[in-house]
Amino acid sequence: MKLKTLPYIFSVCKLTDATGINLRGEYVFVGKTDEELSLVCPLEEVPANTTARVDGWKGFRIEGVLDFSLIGILSKLSGILADNKIGIFAVSTYNTDYILVKEENFERALFALAQAGYEID
What we know:
Number of domains: 1
CATH architecture: 2-Layer Sandwich
CATH superfamily: VC0802-like
Distance between the termini: 11 Å
Order of helices and strands: EEEEEHEEHE
Number of strands: 8
Oligomer: single chain
CATH class: Alpha Beta
C-alpha cells in the first residue's frame, strides 16, 4: 500500500462557529457534532475564532480510492504506530484516510511504516 506525505504543518482546532474557515484551501477537514465544531487545516489558515488548538501535526494519506468494503486499513497503520509509541489523529474522507502525527514523530512514523512494507512517497 502506498502512502503520500502531505506538504503542510497542520493545526487541530476547536471553533466557536464556522466563520473564517477557508473552505477553498487545499486541505480543510471540518467536523461538527452537538458538542463541538472542529477543524484541521494548515497552520497558516487557522481562523481567529479558534478557542483551542494543537499545532505541529504532519501527515500522509493512503493513496487511491478505498472501497468501503475494505477492513482494517486504519487499524493496521495505527497499530504499527502505536507499537512505536506514536499517537495519531485520523481523518477519513469519502475516498481515503489521512493520518496526522506530531511533527517531532513524523520521520520516525514514516520509518516504522516503511519497515512494515508500506511504500512512502
